[in-house]
Amino acid sequence: MPRKAARAASEPPRLGVAADMVWIEAGVFHMGSNNHYPEEAPVHREAVDGFWIDRTPVTNRAFAAFVAATGYVTTAERQPDPADYPDAEPSALAPGSLVFAAPAVVHDHDDWRAWWRFEEGAQWRCPSGPGSSIAGIEDHPVVHVSFADAVSYAEWAGKELPREAEWEFAARGGLDRAEFAWGDEFAPDGVHLANTWQGRFPVENLALDGYRGTSPVTAFPPNGLGLCDMIGNVWEWTTDHYLPDHRQRAAETCCGSPRHASRDLFPKKVLKGGSHLCAPNYCRRYRPAARQAQTIDTASTHIGFRCVYRDASNT
Question: Fewest beta carbons within 10 Å, which of 4, 25, 98, 160?
């Protein structure tokens, strides 16, 4: 059946959904990469229907409006249920989240506990822990949000979270098979086009891009489709259950969802985009093809999200 003509990109979606979204035309692209981490392979052709996507990650300002309207309490603010964590001492369970803390020295780069700590009281309003706040960073991406938190916001906004293929298609900015969201050179003419880590992670952050933590969501130029922060700043949740490679994903998924969903208490979803903590010597995942598994109960200082809106009248 032929597709209906898409509306102009400047026309907002129906049903009162926020207008600050970009329309992505349906298309086919090469998803994944054969040149980096094994979970990105193999490259395969993927078809995506047209959809709207937020121009930027959801900000602290927008999330605060959601909380003010609904009274929502995030995962990081709730007392954990000991039944959900049978291997943990109940006395050790407390509301909080993971906070990055740069160590003076690292002996084992495989031990992430050297630079991540669980901070009681860390949550979206207090991103660095008790005593911190989002004052002055209202236009930075909201962090310390679990998968359930992101879904709840999306439902309130009349939207959904993106599928992995939708996210990657949009992140590529119309440049099929390019390494980055803007082309094949990471910093053309020495200009940094995304918020990532420069220097030896995790002990040396040169901040050549101007930021040591998160940045305003429009601090860097948009990609070719007008989308900001598709690379770097914060990882972003997608709805896809994590499978270890794209060959398995292509064989076992249908319409972006696995036919055999995990029965784990906290299954893993796919994160996309990399973050301000991704560095050449440790995590070269500041690319559209890159992907990472994350348990749905996890929140941290480098995980956020953006939403999509799928309008059946456009297909």
Answer: 4
Among the listed residues 3, 71, 11, 46, the one whose alpha carbon sits nearest the alpha carbon of residue 309? 11
Helix 147-156 and helix 60-70: axis angle, to 10°? 70
- C-alpha distances (whole Å) from 311 to each of 25, 51, 162, 238 are 12, 7, 13, 18
Contacts (Cβ under 8 Å, ≥6 apart) of 218: 56, 139, 228, 229
Domain that holds residue 116: 21-314
Q: What is the DSSP string of 57-76?
A: PPBHHHHHHHHHHH----GG
308-309, strands of its sheet edge to edge: 21-24, 51-54, 308-309
Q: What is the CATH number of the domain that holds 242?
A: 3.90.1580.10
**Structural domain tally of the chain?**
1
255: exposed, middle or buried (Cβ count in 10 Å: 0-12, 13-18, 19+): exposed
Residues 171 and 32: beta-carbon distance below 8 Å:
no
CB 297 within 8 A of CB 255: no
Partnered with residue 123 across adjacent β-strands are 126
Instruction: Flag whether 273 is in a domain.
Output: yes
With respect to residue 232, please indicate whether it lies within any of the assigned structural domains.
Answer: yes
- Return the pLDDT at 246: 65
Model confidence over 197-223: pLDDT tens digits? 999 999 999 999 999 999 999 999 999
Look at residue 28 and tell me if it is in a domain: yes
Q: What pLDDT, on a 0 to 100 scale, did the predictor assign at position 78?
A: 96
Question: How are beta strands 308-309 and 253-254 bridged, if at all?
Answer: unpaired
pTM metric for this prediction: 0.89
pLDDT band at 38; cut points 50, 70, 90: very high
Residue 1 has pLDDT above 80, yes or no: no
37/289 Cα distance (integer angstroms): 10
Task: Calculate mean pLDDT across residues 164-168.
Answer: 97
